[in-house]
Specification:
The chain is mostly beta strands. It has a single domain, classed as Jelly Rolls. It has no helices and six strands. The protein has strands at residues 4-13, 15-20, 27-30, 34-38, 43-48, 55-62. The chain is globular and about 50 Å long.
């Protein structure tokens, strides 16, 4: 079994802003936008649109084992 190596987040509906540890600027995201982050990268949602519900898709991706 492998540990999670990467996380992916996609805004399906709505809009949001993410703060990623080590980056000064917020990441603006709208429906259809996605971001891939290394596992254990500290991040948080700073803002979501008050005009409509924000719906996320979150993926936690494992390493692909090498073929032998």
């Amino acid at each position: 079994m492998t540990k999670c190596k990467m996380s992916g987040y996609m805004v399906v509906r709505g809009a949001a802003q993410l703060r990623i540890d080590g980056q000064d600027a917020l990441v603006n995201m709208e429906a259809g936008d996605y971001i891939l982050l290394p596992a254990h990268c500290r991040h948080r949602v700073e803002w979501t649109s008050p005009e409509e519900e924000t719906v996320w898709l979150a993926l936690h991706l494992d390493a692909v084992p090498a073929k032998q």
